[in-house]
TrEMBL record:
GO terms for molecular function: ATP binding. Residues 5-232 form the ABC transporter domain. The keyword Cell wall biogenesis/degradation does not apply. Belongs to the ABC transporter superfamily. InterPro entries: AAA+_ATPase, ABC_transporter-like_ATP-bd, ABC_transporter-like_CS, P-loop_NTPase. This is ABC transporter ATP-binding protein. CDD domains: ABC_BcrA_bacitracin_resist (cd03268).
């Protein structure tokens, strides 16, 4: 099966600044790929290179097997995009705005109803966009990206600025697009929880470099489990815990006296938790809570962005 998006060493410099640094990413067919990174990490620049809107300083990008630099038009035909600036005409209706794009793309009129239906906006299509909420504009943007049923949808921060209802709606449309549209989705976000709820695959970009990539479930399963403890004397507890091969950190999420202990490969948390609990109690340390912390994208993200070097080099 052809990977829908594939880049090799994709790099973009702006003067002395390297915004995107040797990114090799792979988005499998039918994936909902969450492209994560904090503001300024290089997400938008990467997406613009995929769309052929800016040229890479080095490296290549392929969309459905087509090299963007060699055949920009053929690659562009395979992609629909929702970027941050919408560029809708406020005095035209939703339908009329879509019609502008439809004509440019040379598509039949029936496409408008189809895409409005996908984002459940047929009833509002006749209203002026100037009167739309931000959430509705965003959905119209998604509808426009779907014109012509491209095989890849590229969405830059699609939930940015939306209220909780708008976010929930957008999530509903993004979670199952392969079912709705047959498209592979690549969406960027700086919100871990958003990506965790929507994505099947993730890529994390940090300071221009791709520091983690893979299927979300597999990445989570491979993450070392973390035990969370809350005790009355965390300093003495930390000394006791040195007997085990754990990496310890402070964790005040559940209240004061919290410790997070990351297990090493091969350790099972039930066994370690029982041993630790016994040792702490023997030392007269009060244990308020001890248990496994659910594996999360946040844990993975922190690991790779704090280390700040690509996993491939760390491995
Ligand atoms: N046209 C440009 N000229 C100079 N520097 C730029 C240009 N575009 C982006 N940059 C720089 O490249 C880096 C990456 O920017 P980019 O917009 O790709 O980040 P991002 O991850 O999309 O962040 P955000 O979520 O804030 O959009 C930033 O440091 C930014 O200042």
């Amino acid at each position: 099966m052809v990977d829908m998006v594939q880049t090799q060493g994709l790099t973009r410099r702006f003067g002395a600044r390297t915004a995107v640094d040797g990114v090799s990413m792979t988005v499998p067919d039918q994936a909902v790929y969450g492209f994560l990174g904090r503001n300024g990490a290089g997400k938008t620049t990467t997406l613009k290179m995929l769309l052929g809107l800016i040229r890479p300083s080095a490296g290549t990008a392929r969309i459905g097997g087509v090299d963007v630099a060699r055949d920009r038009i053929a690659a562009a035909r395979k992609i629909g995009a929702l970027l941050e600036a919408h560029g809708f005409y406020g005095n035209l209706t939703g339908r009329e705005n879509l019609d502008v794009s439809r004509r440019l793309l040379g598509l039949p009129v029936s496409e408008i109803d189809r895409v409005l239906g996908v984002v459940e906006m047929r009833a509002d299509g006749g209203r002026r966009v100037g009167g739309y909420s931000l959430g509705m504009r965003q959905r119209l943007g998604l509808a426009r990206a779907m014109l012509g049923a491209p095989s890849v949808l590229v969405l830059d921060e699609p939930t940015n600025g939306l209220d909780p209802d708008g976010i929930a709606e957008m999530r509903r449309f993004l979670r199952d697009p392969p079912d709705r549209t047959g498209a592979t989705v690549l969406l960027s976000s700086h919100l871990l929880s958003e990506i965790e709820q929507i994505a099947t695959h993730v890529g994390v970009i940090h300071q221009g470099r791709l520091v983690l990539e893979g299927e979300l479930a597999a990445l989570k399963a491979a993450e070392a489990p973390v035990l969370h403890l809350r005790v009355d004397d965390p300093e003495r507890a930390a000394t006791v815990l040195r007997r085990w091969d754990l990496s310890l950190s402070k964790d005040e999420v559940g209240g004061e006296g919290g410790l997070a202990a990351r297990l090493s490969p091969g350790q099972t948390h039930d066994q370690v938790a029982a041993e630790i609990n016994r040792a702490l109690v023997e030392q007269g340390i009060g244990v308020f809570a001890i248990g496994a912390r659910e594996r999360s994208l946040e844990g993975l993200y922190r690991q790779v962005t704090e280390n700040a070097h690509p996993l491939s080099e760390a491995a």
